[in-house]
User: What shape does this take?
Amino acid sequence: MKQTKLVDTGKAWENLQNRLTQENLIPENRKKLRLHSWNLTGAAVIIFCIFTGFGIYVLSDKSGNDLLSVTNEESGTSLVTTLEDGSTIYLTGNTSISYPEHFKTHERTVEIKGDALFEVIKDQERPFIVETEHVRIKVLGTAFRVNTNDKNSSSSFELSVIRGLVEVTGKSWGNPVPVAAGESVSLINGRLLKGNPKTDQFSKFNSRIRFKDENLDNILRVIKQTTGTNVILGSDDLKDLKLNVSFRNNSPDAMVKVICIALKLNYTSEDNTFYIYKP
Assistant: This one.
């Protein structure tokens, strides 16, 4: 029998409100709003009433089509963005990505400047293309890191593949270079050189993650990607609920608890699966 976990709503919300007020993160006309509280012993989870370090702009490409440009202006966190095809991108500080609101029928193309981790949904009919200043990356479905601003290296571009296979092609020279899982490639002095990725380079992307106006369904997909924990919604109308939230090295239980409090939902858990439903 499933056991419902009760959330103790006590003093923590008041402490959070006081801190946000002291840091001027709550507008003056909203400081009198009463906030309900929760008990998160040992958890470091913050829901921001106002998000900083985030920018989204509407641009136009050469053909006049609208492009969305997202920039993470805050260092120390990964801003998680989900594209219309379900692919997920973790943007580190000072990283920006541009992409169309709707992908073309024959390919999915994005442009990246900075350091980002990609979780690409497989679609054989529409390859996923990542454009950087010097190279073009082509994938069908995989997870990989792209870094175009490594100031501590002689390389102006580096790619490391977690799983799957990608092709890297220089824009002004050469044939495609295949890069498989467990391999990396760097652009040094105009040449693509293969090597082995650093083993600890991926952990920084999910140690502290945040979402801005993200659908609940997408947030839960990221939780599964990063923790392996399944979270099932009790009804389809919950999928499109939007949330601003930040997590730092949290357990799945703590993350689900905060989501439910923020959206006034309930949950139960059994084995390694959480069930979220309306009261």
